[in-house]
Amino acid sequence: LVCFILCVSRGNGDCGLDIFVLSDSHGSLKWMMQAVERERPERVLHLGDHAADAVQLQAALPALPVEMVCGNCDLQQSAPQTLCQTYAGKTIFMTHGHLYQVKLTPYRAVLAAEEAGAELLLYGHTHRAALFREENLWVMNPGTCCGTQPITYGVVSLETSGIHCRIESLERR
């Protein structure tokens, strides 16, 4: 398993990064753009199901780094099914979740993330936002930013002091 390392200095000696997490966009670029404009993240992680939306987001905002994994609806995408990366000294395991049967329970995905040495597991697939801690592992499902359901996304702040996670929602306008 290969992990990549990224560290961004905030100018105060703290190595940190603000990450926007979304999943299951299903063609809803409008909501993705609204959320990115609202949060002004330093990086976007898309957890699949219309990963092509992440490609469009990156084309619209070329200065914003966007990474993605494939979901069960991403048959033509070349993105990986899982990704383990280290940002600001914190290891994140990303998956859409369908390979781990997360609609039943996130347990298998939790085990995979722990095995990879991750401190944060990000998954989607269920369209239901969730945020909890499983021993030393933060677990986040940002829900869906598809306009047919409550529009939710995740925000992760990686700091030397730890990982800070929250789920946010957008109102349809």
Topology, element by element:
Elements: E1 4-6, E2 17-22, H1 29-39, E3 43-46, H2 51-60, E4 66-68, E5 82-87, E6 90-95, H3 107-115, E7 120-122, E8 130-134, E9 137-141, E10 151-159, E11 162-170
Parallel strand pairs: 1-5, 2-3, 3-4, 6-7, 7-9
Antiparallel strand pairs: 2-10, 5-6, 8-9, 10-11
Structural class based on helices, strands and sheet pairing: alpha/beta
Q: How would a textbook summarize the main sheet?
A: 6 strands, mixed
- Care to count the β-strands? 11
Q: Could you tell me the strand content as a percent range?
A: 25-35%
User: What integer is the average pLDDT?
Assistant: 88
Return residue spans where pLDDT drops below 50 for at least 5 consecutive residues.
1-14
**What helical percentage do the residues reach?**
10-25%
Radius of gyration: 15 Å
Structural commentary:
It is built from three helices and eleven strands; from the N terminus they run E-E-H-E-H-E-E-E-H-E-E-E-E-E. The chain is an alpha/beta fold and 173 residues long. Strands 1-5-6-7-9-8 form a six-stranded mixed β-sheet, covered by helices on one side. The protein has a five-stranded mixed β-sheet with strand order 4-3-2-10-11. Helix 1 links the parallel strand 2 and strand 3. The longest helix has 11 residues. The N terminus is likely disordered.
